[in-house]
Design goal:
heterodimer; A: mainly alpha; Four Helix Bundle (Hemerythrin (Met), subunit A); 7 helices; B: mainly alpha; 2 domains; 4 helices; 0% strand; elongated
């Protein structure tokens, strides 16, 4: 069965189905992370004492990860521009860089986590660390998910470029929107968990 | 897409990337200023919102997006505010010194 409106806009919504689908999904993601951010606000404002976050966590590593994720957000939109211009070689370069960025982010995150565990700092230590591991853990899972999709679109998925370039371009756009959202979540997590 | 359009688009993305990296430096620098809590929180969240807005407008092409997408996002924003108000409101007497709980306590009528 053919999936309808993958490339041409649906008359009633004015958007392609993947486009409206990803925005509805991202809206639900905003509520998911919003509920965790509001839990953070409630627990922190109601707490008698709160640890000095920047003393517990590594600000330099988190700054590095912020830079990595922002650069990979730029490279995936450059990949989309390359596809739209029909430059499939440039697309593969930029998508490859995006994948490297996502992988580097996870490596840095793994260093951070293992350093905390080595110091005996775990989610059960206090409310702050429970929130830190929940929020960054959920975010890291989102990075893993994006990485899998981006790897597919960089590798075997690129075949669609020859059979249905319009639909392939739509896929890159949707994957990009998700990746930018993951970047935006980190843009808020960084100051809230590390700096304030 | 013509070569000129492609190059102009690429330049716009790289300029935005530069702005985002500069704002990251601002975020980290602000945390070293040792300002009182309230302005620190307000400034940090303002810079983060500005960065998020740049990503949304330029990278996610929200500038010039379809009305249905705007509608979805406005509804989501309203619901996030409701979420915060409900959750923080549950502990408002302690957090903000409101007296909602008094209405339910025993006492002379």
């Amino acid at each position: 069965m053919e999936i309808p409106y993958t490339s041409e806009p649906r008359p009633d919504t004015g958007l392609t189905n993947p486009k409206i689908g990803i925005w509805l999904f991202l809206a639900s993601e905003v509520m998911l992370f919003g509920s965790l951010f509001s839990a953070y606000a409630l627990l922190r404002m109601g707490a008698e004492t709160w640890p000095d976050q920047s003393a517990v966590l590594s600000v330099p590593l988190a700054t590095l990860n912020t830079v990595i994720l922002i650069v990979s957000s730029a490279t995936i939109v450059l990949a989309l521009a390359a596809v739209r211009a029909g430059r499939i070689d440039a697309y593969r370069r930029f998508m490859g860089l995006t994948i490297l960025g996502g992988a580097a982010f996870l490596v840095v995150k793994a260093f951070e986590y293992s350093d905390k565990f080595a110091q005996g700092l775990v989610p059960a230590t206090d409310n702050f660390l429970a929130l830190y591991f929940t929020l960054t853990g959920l975010h890291a899972l989102h990075v893993v998910g994006g990485l899998v999709v981006n790897l597919y679109l960089w590798g075997p998925g690129v075949r669609m470029w020859r059979t249905d370039p319009a639909r392939f371009t739509g896929r890159i756009e949707v994957a990009g929107l998700y990746w930018h959202f993951v970047d935006v979540v980190w843009i808020f997590l960084f100051p809230v968990l590390y700096l304030l | 897409m013509s070569d000129a359009t492609y190059q102009a688009e690429t330049r716009a993305y790289l300029t935005t990337l530069g702005a985002l990296l500069a704002l990251t430096v601002v975020t980290v620098a602000l945390s070293y200023l040792d300002l009182p809590t309230a302005p620190t929180v307000a400034l940090a969240l303002a810079v983060a919102s500005l960065k998020a807005a740049l990503v949304a407008a330029v990278f996610m092409h929200l500038k010039g997006e379809h009305a249905l997408v705007y509608g979805t996002l406005v509804l989501t924003a309203v619901l996030v505010v409701v979420l915060f108000v409900l959750l923080l409101g549950a502990d408002a007497d302690r957090l903000f010194g409101t007296g909602f709980g008094d209405a339910f306590s025993e006492g002379p009528r």
